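To the wet lab folks,

You asked to see what we're planning to order before we commit. Fair enough. Below is the target structure as tokens, and below that is the sequence we designed to fit it. If anything looks off to you, flag it before the synthesis order goes out.
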């Protein structure tokens, strides 16, 4: 029996029809015990989710229309909250009744919320959580006057307090998915949702007191990567009373990776994947700290510190000058009020375990963005990654080698496969490299890590190269691809910034790497020469041009001048600080010395060409004095001997090349649509893409142009290529 025919009976179910009707069902009515006592293997593919949504669309529509009168959705929420309060004691006694009913209740709630979010205005969705006085008297509970806050708090209680095992895995997954769906109102809006009731409650409601514990548990779900125990086979839905019809969901075909989203590895651990999604959504929204917006989830992720061992982890709240510490237990702070806006939330977490996961998993958009956020925003984690001061540095060195090992190579492989990667993922990977390159110790260490074989680098069979050399090769390849294909000036500026940061620490460059550096300059020089000729033809006889009326070729010429100058600065920096350690680069310069001829007298490049000329003249004299018809090995020997007495003082010193990544003023404009597009494409949730307003959904949705990424150069302030450089 196919999926479509098997779920068609849901709309005729007596319990569901009564739930969606106009008659009010009290939260104390025994019918809830019957309604929520079904055995149901939850749908795990988008096709199954879509089939259920289509079969219950009329019921959900009726529920939404009748909710102002019946308040049955609010009653269901109250039932769910009551079940959650009984779950933790039941897990200790291995009584699964409350887990079973809470999971079923949450499945129904999630299903209804999904319909509300996609088919109603965001304020209408928020009103489904309103409680009138009569309803509160009936329940003999006020929930603090805010059912939405209490509901979100219950979801957090599940995620934080209920242990994850085979019995509770589905409950955890439903809780995380429900929070994602609750926040998905943003996908169906064009304006930012931070001032809406749903997000205001998340940020400032009583539930926000648990933000630190929630962030910690989501990170734990990510690092533990527990697999979903899917028994397979048919899905049976039934109820002992016989009022539910038996439904069978068949698995008729295996969905492709594109259809279901994500890799096979992630499909086996949906809780880990969805936890990353929820974490990224929580920290990417409401990020306008300068405008007085406080996001406790961002504070928690940006400030958590290292723990010596997981058993000693604790949860802290720092309020003004007073530090409060509580156990990592939801019930311990159950009655707490909302976090004041001047509170910093933090917790302890195992950095080694977290970094080990980044080193071993297949990198995708989600994990790359999470790694970027941690490196950019969490100072302690970044220091840990870059630390080399004691025995821990040996462990970390191994971790970095694993991160870039030929088997995984996540960041470099993303850049290497730029033609097959989406622009946002390329940007995130490149920015991670740029952030790492801000540290001189990292820049030195990468040249000490030897890679025996890099099978995926197909331009040339390289049997022995340093990690630093491979980074240079991949970045150069990215620059050339960008200049010939995408022509994104911000991308090559970021590439050059990473190379510039590393240049003063280039050591023992492989001959092929040295050759590629010179080839890049030669490639750019030829393009520049052609552009200059084109500009001369296009501007001949036109003396009254304004910047607005300049041909595009003139703008391209100016951009290429900046790129050429930057490459010359990189070569200068390498040779000024590390010439004796880069004799292969000196050999490559001598071999291709003609490429610099036309730049000696050019006013834009004259100062930088001076040092190159000094080096060429010095070593050329030594080679010429050694005789004619020297072999490559003999020339290299002459260069090596001449470098021993190399007069470094003959070179002109230029300001150090130091670039620092600076996030744009409004990161939400980039990250919110990007992360939601990733969630929509990867989560096991069916979305009605025709109703998405936040971004344009197409099969190649991820190829939308990213926003500008800003580079901040630590030197004298000036403007170049529309990028802030200082």
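Sequence we intend to order:
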């Amino acid at each position: 029996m196919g999926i479509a025919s098997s779920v068609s009976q849901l709309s005729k179910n007596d319990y569901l029809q009564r739930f969606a009707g106009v008659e009010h069902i009290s939260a104390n009515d025994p019918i809830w015990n019957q309604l929520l006592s079904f055995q149901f293997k939850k749908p795990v593919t988008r096709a199954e989710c879509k089939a259920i949504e289509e079969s219950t669309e009329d019921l959900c529509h009726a529920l939404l229309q009748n909710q102002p009168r019946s308040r049955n959705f609010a009653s269901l929420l109250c039932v769910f909250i009551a079940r959650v309060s009984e779950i933790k004691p039941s897990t200790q006694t291995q009584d699964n009744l409350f887990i079973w009913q809470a999971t079923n209740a949450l499945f129904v709630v999630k299903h209804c919320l999904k319909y509300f979010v996609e088919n109603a205005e965001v304020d209408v969705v928020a009103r489904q959580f309103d409680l009138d006085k009569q309803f509160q008297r009936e329940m003999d509970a006020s929930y603090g006057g805010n059912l939405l806050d209490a509901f979100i708090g219950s979801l957090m209680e599940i995620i934080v307090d209920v242990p994850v095992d085979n019995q509770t895995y589905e409950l955890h997954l439903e809780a995380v998915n429900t929070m994602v769906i609750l926040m998905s109102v943003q996908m169906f809006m064009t304006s930012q949702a931070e001032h809406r009731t749903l997000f205001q409650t998340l940020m400032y409601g009583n539930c926000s007191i648990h933000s630190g514990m929630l962030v910690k548990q989501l990170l734990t779900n990510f690092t533990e990567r527990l697999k979903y125990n899917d028994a397979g086979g048919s899905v049976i839905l039934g109820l002992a009373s016989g009022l539910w019809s038996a439904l069978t969901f068949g698995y008729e075909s295996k969905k492709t990776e594109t259809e279901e989203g994500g890799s096979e590895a992630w499909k086996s651990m949906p809780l880990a994947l969805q936890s990353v999604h929820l974490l990224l959504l929580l920290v990417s929204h409401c990020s306008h700290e300068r405008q007085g917006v406080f996001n406790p989830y961002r504070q928690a992720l940006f400030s958590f510190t290292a723990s010596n061992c997981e058993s000693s982890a604790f949860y802290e709240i720092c309020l003004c000058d007073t530090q409060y510490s509580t156990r990592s237990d939801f019930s311990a702070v159950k009655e707490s009020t909302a976090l004041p806006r001047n509170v910093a939330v933090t917790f302890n977490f195992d950095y080694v375990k977290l970094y080990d996961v980044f080193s071993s998993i297949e990198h995708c958009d989600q994990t790359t963005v999470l790694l970027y956020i941690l490196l950019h925003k969490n100072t302690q984690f970044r220091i840990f990654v870059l630390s080399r001061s004691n025995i821990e540095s040996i462990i970390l060195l191994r971790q970095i080698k694993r991160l870039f090992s030929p088997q995984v190579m996540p960041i470099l492989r993303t850049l290497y496969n730029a033609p097959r990667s989406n622009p946002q993922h390329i940007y995130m990977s490149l920015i991670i490299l740029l952030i790492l390159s801000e540290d001189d110790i990292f820049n030195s260490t990468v040249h000490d890590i030897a890679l025996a074989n890099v099978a995926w680098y197909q331009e040339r069979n390289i049997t022995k190269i340093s990690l630093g050399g491979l980074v240079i090769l991949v970045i150069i390849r990215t620059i050339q691809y960008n200049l010939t294909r995408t022509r994104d000036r911000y991308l090559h500026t970021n590439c050059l910034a990473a190379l510039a940061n590393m240049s003063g620490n280039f050591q023992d460059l492989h001959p092929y790497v040295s050759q590629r550096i010179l080839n890049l300059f030669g490639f750019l020089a030829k393009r520049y020469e052609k552009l200059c000729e084109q500009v001369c033809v296009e501007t001949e006889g036109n003396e009254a041009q304004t910047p607005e009326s300049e041909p595009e070729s003139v703008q391209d010429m100016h951009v290429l001048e900046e790129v050429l100058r930057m490459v010359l600065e990189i070569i200068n920096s390498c040779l000024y600080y590390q010439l004796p350690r880069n004799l292969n680069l000196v050999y490559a310069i001598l071999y291709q010395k003609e490429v610099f001829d036309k730049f000696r007298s050019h006013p834009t490049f004259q100062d930088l060409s001076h040092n190159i000329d000094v080096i060429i003249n010095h070593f050329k004299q030594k080679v010429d004095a050694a005789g004619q018809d020297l072999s490559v090995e003999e020339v290299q020997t002459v260069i090596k001997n001449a470098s021993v007495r190399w007069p470094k003082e003959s070179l002109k010193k230029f300001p150090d090349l130091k670039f620092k990544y600076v996030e744009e003023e409004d990161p939400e404009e980039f990250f919110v649509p990007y992360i939601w597009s990733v969630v929509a494409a990867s989560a096991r949730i069916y979305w009605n893409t025709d109703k998405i307003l936040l971004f344009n959904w197409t099969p190649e949705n991820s190829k939308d142009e990213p926003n500008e990424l800003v580079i901040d150069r630590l030197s004298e302030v000036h403007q170049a290529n529309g990028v802030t450089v200082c």
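Structural context that might help your review: The chain has 33 helices and twelve strands. The CA atoms of residues 223 and 354 lie 6 Å apart.

Thanks,
Computational group
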